[in-house]
Structures
1.
Amino acid sequence: MTVTITTHSPAQTQALAERLAKLLRPGDVLAYTGPMGAGKTTFTVGLARGLGSSDWVSSPTFALVQEYRGPVPLCHFDFYRITGVDDLYATGFFDYLDGTRVLAVEWSERIPDALPEGAIHIRFEPLENDCRRITISTPAGDDRLAARRVMFPVSPCAFLPFIFPPTPWHTSLLFLCAAAGFAAAQGVLGHCVRACAARRFVLSCA
């Protein structure tokens, strides 16, 4: 199954990863692809937070791998400098495939034959400004993305940050709607969602 989402800020990219983390389990491998500066490390910040880690997340470009502690440990690889299988052995990559942690692999296109068959592929495409198109694909038989209510709650209040970029009027609207009560807020924001979804939010499933 494939899901494509357009985010409009680093905060939204992190929030998406945090929701995806709720669907992950130890042993999952996330194979990132996309150009430099496409939001892969930003996404991993939200992923680590969603897995329960409070460790500082940084790009492992020179260290090759960063490990983040938590209820489900996360190992973050950067294979930009990898040139072959021998380099992979030097990083200890195969030792990490022990089913006890989640692996996030940047530049996974450099090691296609080393990825497990059940890897989840995530493609990052930079758009204008801070917008990113993120495509998440699971292998055949893995229907976790079908439970996308976990990733994309049906409440209009939860959808709104993905429809509008963070702005002062956006924050004020959320505050006023919350003060007015959930029922009223749902009606107002539902109208906003229907009016603006086609313009500011992209979600497709296949």
2.
Amino acid sequence: MSKKIEENEEVIRFMGRSLEDTPTRPYTLSEENRSVQVVISSTTPVLEFDRSFDDVIPTVILPEGIETPRIGQVPLLDCHDRMSTESQIGSVRNMKAEGDEFVGDAFFASDDKSERVFSLVKDGHLTDYSISARILDGFILEEGETKTINNRSFTGPIKIVTKSSVSEVSSCPIGADSNAKNRSKKDGHKMAEAIEKKPETPAIV
């Protein structure tokens, strides 16, 4: 029988990933706006430690259950470092659920450190992103237990986060979610068209 998970626990995904296609300059990158469209999180299960389970367990954060701040943006950090403002390299805006993915636009600042990170993205070296989200609701499926949510079937043991709140997004060398990357030509057309039709969410400073 499934059991409810702890609320207000924070999930930070930053360990390991599967190798994907050969990195290239992201098709969705804009040098003029210093931005790139990114997949922040997906329904790919990621092994994470759960306090109530007292062990690592595959965890899925449902994209449609991720809440965003009223100001319309969250910090873009360097590898989840929250100890200094020097670790902030920009912000992520225009966040939304799109199928099995939670996507957004990463905007990079113009200082030297942020410029270096943006150059790594532009040159195709840095591809991965990682979400930090506070759990608001969800449950754990026990071994062999199966449940269907929004046409997705899950079999335990697995932790399903049905409602969460994004705190920040980080650019990192190795992300946990193998699908959380810069958007390339093959998957960027649809989002690029949608953003062209919709005004950019204004930054609050």
